Every structure is written in C-alpha cells, then in structure tokens.
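Hi U.,

Before I forget, here's the chain from the pilot set. I'm dumping it here mostly so it's searchable later in email.
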Amino acid sequence: MGTKHNNDGGTVLERQEQKLKPPAMYQVVLLNDDYTPMEFVVAIIQEYFNKDRETAMHIMLKVHKDGRGVCGVYSKDIALTKVELVSMHARKAGHPLQCVMEEV
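Structure:
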C-alpha cells in the first residue's frame, strides 16, 4: 500500500487501492453441435486450455450431454484470445464448433 506524507509531517495511508474492484473474469464455454467430432473437442480442450486428457474428456462429455461446458475462467483479454483461437482452429478444420465467453 502506498504512503503519502501530509504537510504536518504525518503519514496518511492511501485507501484508493481498496476502492478498486477486481477486474471482471470471463468463463470460456464450448457449445454443443451435431457435427464436430468428440475427439476434436477433446484435442481443442487439451491444446487451448491446458487440460489433461481425462479432464478434457469430462468437459467434452459435459458439452455433449448438457449442451455446453466451461473450459476455464480468465481475464477478459485472455478469454477473448482463447475464443478467437478456438473458433479459428475449428473453422480451418471445417467444424462448426462454437466457443463463447460469459462474464462470471
């Protein structure tokens, strides 16, 4: 915490840092479709979200069964980058996989 000296030689603690709220966090979510192969989804989760195969399988099954699965929670810039990378990879591979971000 920063300190500031006032004119009479005393020290005043700055409380500004307590007023700042933490930045919003965003969850990155994969959405189910009837065309993207399950194995491709698992590979995407492993590659872009650094999950081991077992965790990636669990997330993929959640996408398959529930229509959506959270891959991770990140700051806005990182979440946006992950959405863009996953979407670009899926399109290049010819899959309609959708990846979105939602504020937590």
